[in-house]
Q: What sequence folds into this?
């Protein structure tokens, strides 16, 4: 696997992530793309990578949500049409994707031999 996880660990983590986040999707707390992104991250890097990306991604999604709460800031960041499109939702997938990028950059800096 590209991020150092064994194939069985990656597949197991992807299945567990799908089963763990499916109820959040069914209740409308997460989008289907967010659930699939979590499963893909788990598949690529296993449990450690998924937990790190969830931690970093949730923090970044929270910062995005705080930025959206400030009307002038959200107006300047995305234009006047942002609020009707989001309808009170925080784009969690963006935070997860940024968390994945941040985790990958951190691992490349601290352990250049991490990627085989």
A:
């Amino acid at each position: 696997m590209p991020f150092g996880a064994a194939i069985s660990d990656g597949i197991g983590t992807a299945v567990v992530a799908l089963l763990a986040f499916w109820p959040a999707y069914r209740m409308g707390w997460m989008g289907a793309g967010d659930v699939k992104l979590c499963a893909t991250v788990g598949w690529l890097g296993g449990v450690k990578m998924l937990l790190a990306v969830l931690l970093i991604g949730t923090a970044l999604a929270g910062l995005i949500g705080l930025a959206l709460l400030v009307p002038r800031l959200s107006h300047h960041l995305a234009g006047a049409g942002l609020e009707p499109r989001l309808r009170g939702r925080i784009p969690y997938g963006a935070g997860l994707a940024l968390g994945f990028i941040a985790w990958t950059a951190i691992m490349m800096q601290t352990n250049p031999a991490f990627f085989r």
